[in-house]
Design brief:
Blueprint lengths: L4 H10 L17 H28 L6 H15 L8 H7 L3 H14 L10 H10 L8 E3 L1 H8 L2 E5 L2 E3 L8 E6 L4 H4 L7 E5 L2 E2 L5 H8 L7 E5 L5 E5 L8 E7 L2 E8 L2 E5 L2 E2 L2 E2 L5 E2 L1 E3 L4 E6 L6 H14 L4 E5 L8 H10 L5 E7 L3 E6 L13 E5 L6 H11 L4 E4 L7 E5 L8 E10 L32 H16 L17 H19 L1
Helix pairs in contact: 2-3, 2-5, 2-6, 3-4, 3-6, 10-11, 11-12
């Protein structure tokens, strides 16, 4: 069924609709302009879906039946249009023998659904791409605008540093996210706070999108990230916006309404965090200043996290650190390259991970971190839990296999798959596809497959003496406490639960293991 791209392009333009297995009947009242628009949308739909399926067929981590992919894509189109899926659809897909007939089927199906507003424009392709993901795995997905917005809050960002809970003009304008290191964080704003007024404008009845338009500069980055039309990102040179300070009236339960003035600015979105903030809002990384024990947390593996960690490591080295807890709890992973560089900070030369791609064999990732940026001579404990995922697991596994660190906490998630972006045009979204899995340096499996059992090799297991499991409720509470610790501004004197080191039992276990390592090192 495969043809060259040039032949496919020719078929898209020239294939006669009369050859399609599905009969298209448009209403007699449909005018010529509308017919042309539907036909143009149908051709684009066919091209995009065919491209997506071909990329999945070639690159997905395991072989799949193309007929199942096309059936899922077309079923998703019918469901999005709120039309019943034809009983003979699967048979029609299975009977297709050539790419010409396949394209005709895609075009004819889209045309048969007409000018349905639920699938107009890019919505048809979006519906089919979303319908493809259940055939794949939980990590192959369409990433929506909200997730893309989070990705854009990496590195140097311009704005206030907050996002709102989405609404449609009904209900309060509630803050959903406050980004560490941003003006909103330094001003003491928290998730759950409600914006009542911006300058002298009452925002009641406005949508979250309208309010974000008021408080966010028109150009979010001095060098902004834009979609390149294929779902990838490209840099575009823009002039930095000149925005005046904004007066936000804030409501918080148990506190009288107050007004805070915020100046949109370029700030660094933090992903490497410490124990508590100094008055300047800079992180203090020392859990025990007397014993020189540092505690460094990594919240995600975004672009620049490795460089951020190297800066933190240089600080604690210059301050005489004698031991380090590297906290990867709740870290959802991120960029593979960042994970490799972070592991490399603590390791000698050698292999850090091996990625297996379908049909491409193995790709080994070696330690290329500059020697002057490494921290090799102090005891290290890595702290993980059931939400330690992806690249964060790679870091823990590499340090464990190389016997560089002890591991404390509880078993990690077991997500060792690698995702890449498909070249499909989905305005405001991208589609990620699992194209490989990575192995531990020892060669053992790290990924938890659907058929994996508890006793199988997957995830990272803590050292037996340093395992400390938490209930889901206790884990949620501890995660919320650390969010409070992260967002509390350095100028605040508000007491928090984690100001007491004993409030985090997993960290206490890690501290115990680290103290043992430090005692051994002192006796040498």
């Amino acid at each position: 069924m495969r043809q060259t791209r040039s032949i496919l392009s020719l078929l898209l333009v020239c294939a006669p609709l009369g050859a399609a297995p599905t009969t298209v009947t448009l209403p007699a009242s449909t005018n010529t302009a509308t017919q042309q628009q539907i036909h143009a949308e149908a051709l684009n739909y066919a091209q995009q879906v065919l491209s997506a399926v071909n990329q999945i067929d070639t690159s997905y981590v395991r072989p799949l039946q193309r007929t199942e992919l096309f059936y899922a894509a077309l079923s998703g189109l019918y469901e999005a249009a709120r039309q019943p899926v034809p009983r003979n659809l699967r048979t029609e897909v299975q009977q297709v023998k050539t790419d010409a007939d396949l394209i005709n089927l895609l075009v004819a199906t889209r045309r048969s659904l007409g000018m349905n507003p639920l699938i107009q424009g890019h919505l048809a392709v979006m519906a089919s791409c979303r319908a493809l993901t259940p055939v794949l795995d939980p990590h192959s997905c369409v990433v929506n605008e909200e997730e893309l917005q989070r990705l854009r809050h990496e590195g140097e960002v311009t704005g206030l540093g907050l996002e709102l809970v989405e609404n449609v003009g009904v209900g309060p304008l509630r803050i959903k996210t406050v980004y560490p290191g941003s003006p909103a964080q330094r001003a003491g704003l928290r998730p759950g706070d409600v914006i009542k007024q911006i300058d002298k404008l009452a925002v009641k009845g406005m949508t979250s999108a309208q309010v974000m338009g008021l408080i966010q500069p028109a150009i979010p980055l001095a060098v902004s990230m834009a979609l390149d039309g294929t779902g990838g990102e490209v840099e575009t040179e823009q002039d930095a916006p000149q925005s005046a300070p904004l007066a936000l009236k804030i409501q918080r339960p148990g506190k009288e309404d107050w007004t805070v003035k915020l100046q949109p600015e370029t700030y660094h979105a933090e992903t490497v965090l410490g124990v508590m903030r100094e008055e300047s809002n800079r992180w203090d990384y020392f859990l025990d200043a007397k014993q020189k024990i540092a505690h460094v947390r990594i919240s995600s593996l975004g672009k620049g996290t490795a460089a951020e960690l190297q800066t933190a490591v240089q600080r604690i080295k210059s301050d005489g650190a004698r031991g380090l807890i590297l906290d990867l709890r709740w870290c959802p992973g991120g960029y593979l390259a960042e994970a490799v560089q972070i592991a490399g900070v603590f390791l000698e030369d050698g292999m850090i991970a091996c990625v297996k791609n379908r049909g491409d064999g193995e790709q080994k990732y070696m330690n290329t971190t500059p020697h002057e940026c490494r921290l090799l001579d102090i005891p290290l404990v890595v702290l993980i839990n059931g939400e330690t995922s992806g690249g964060a697991e790679l870091i823990a596994a590499a340090l464990q296999d190389q016997k560089r660190a002890r591991v404390a906490g509880q078993r990690s998630l077991g997500k060792a798959s690698v995702q890449t972006t498909l070249h499909v045009h989905l305005p405001g979204s991208i589609m990620k596809l699992t194209t490989g899995t990575f192995l531990r340096p020892s060669g053992k499996n790290l990924h938890r497959f659907p058929e994996s059992k508890l006793h199988d090799d997957w995830g990272v297991l803590p050292d037996e003496a340093l395992e400390f499991r938490l209930s889901p409720e206790r884990n949620k509470q501890l995660k919320e406490w650390w969010e409070q610790q992260t967002l509390r501004p350095g100028t605040s004197n508000r007491l928090l639960p984690l100001d007491d080191p004993k409030a985090d039992p997993q960290r206490q276990i890690a501290l115990r293991g680290l103290t043992q390592l430090m005692d051994r090192a002192a006796r040498r």
